[in-house]
Specification:
By secondary structure, this protein is α+β, with helices and mostly antiparallel strands. It folds into 2 domains: 76 residues, no CATH class; 226 residues, no CATH class. It has 2 helices and 16 strands.
């Protein structure tokens, strides 16, 4: 009996040593690739000519994919890559990388990928293909990862309704020479576990019979003006700046600036319901629209506990 216990003890020590050695090798390999990515990222941002920036971006993408192909790369944070956004979902079922490369002051291209958290550590990756310039009706379009309205994401929220998880992404888009956009995007995974962007969850009238509904929301405003879209933990709401045209030209988004007031959205019965005065919110649960959310089954979750940032 003592001999059996001794053998088990030796086996556990050897297994622990083996796992630690493998983890160290993985970390070392990923760290080396991270150093390369950091250098390429600097070129994407700082290279003098557009051709150099796009070449660095192409090389960056290839190196990132090779890094992610290493087993259990999901848990490696790539903390030194400040030029790209790296966000884990609140339930750690996936993480999303997003970044941009500029051709000039008027043309930006967003790139990204969704890495799923797999049980066996293998890579399940969905590339995000920016088709913003080809999507005409962006407020109502529901699409997949190959028809992505590009944004650089800085926050992920999770809500659940009728057994469907919805992830709300807050992001920004440099957009053009004269204006910037901040966007609220919906992401969910369909029955085939493929990503879907957009869902008719933004309601602009609390009366469901006369409500205006759209699939995503954004603000467009004057370049280099500070505009906020953020989630308020105390209010349990998305709160954003109310904008007005500083020249009284409502048709020109590039003239829009904050006026010191705020609007917001509150998650009620499976919808983001618009609140004109979020700091005076009095609506009780049950008064908002309650119809079932529409899912696009023809388009495009899992575990751990890493937190997005």
């Amino acid at each position: 009996m003592n001999r059996a216990l001794l053998l088990i003890s030796h086996f556990l020590i050897f297994s622990s040593f083996s796992l630690n050695t493998n983890a160290q090798k993985l970390s070392s390999s990923l760290s080396s690739k991270e150093d390369t990515l950091k250098l390429l990222g600097s070129k994407i941002v700082n290279a003098e000519f557009a051709e150099q920036r796009f070449r660095a971006d192409s090389h960056f993408t290839r190196v990132l994919v090779r890094a992610l192909q290493l087993p259990y790369s999901f848990d490696y944070a790539f903390d030194s890559l400040g030029m790209i956004s790296r966000l884990y979902s609140p339930d750690s079922s996936f993480r999303i990388f997003t970044w941009q490369v500029s051709k000039d002051e008027n043309v930006y291209r967003r790139h990204g990928a969704i890495q799923m958290n797999t049980n066996d550590g293998s890579l399940k990756l969905f590339p995000l293909i920016d088709r913003s310039n080809l999507i005409v009706n962006q407020k109502d379009t529901v699409s997949n990862n190959e028809w992505w309205i590009g944004s650089i994401y800085y926050k992920i929220l999770k809500n659940q309704y009728n057994n469907q998880c919805y992830y709300t992404l807050l992001g920004y888009d440099e957009y053009s020479r004269n204006s910037t956009r901040k966007r609220i995007e919906i992401l969910y995974f369909n029955d085939q576990q493929k990503p879907v962007f957009g869902a008719p969850l933004f309601v602009f009238n609390q009366d469901s019979k006369n409500s205006t509904v759209q699939s995503r929301f954004w603000l467009e405003y004057k370049k280099n003006v500070a505009v906020s879209i953020k989630y308020d933990d105390d209010l349990k709401m998305i709160v954003y700046d109310h904008l007005i045209s500083e020249t009284n030209e409502k048709e020109r988004p590039e003239t829009y600036i904050p006026d010191g007031d705020y609007e917001g959205f509150k998650w009620l019965n499976g919808k983001w319901v618009h609140m004109e005065k979020p700091f005076n919110f009095t609506l009780e649960d049950g008064q908002a629209p309650i119809e079932k959310p529409v899912l696009e089954s023809k388009f495009p979750v899992r575990k751990t506990n890493k937190k997005g940032n």
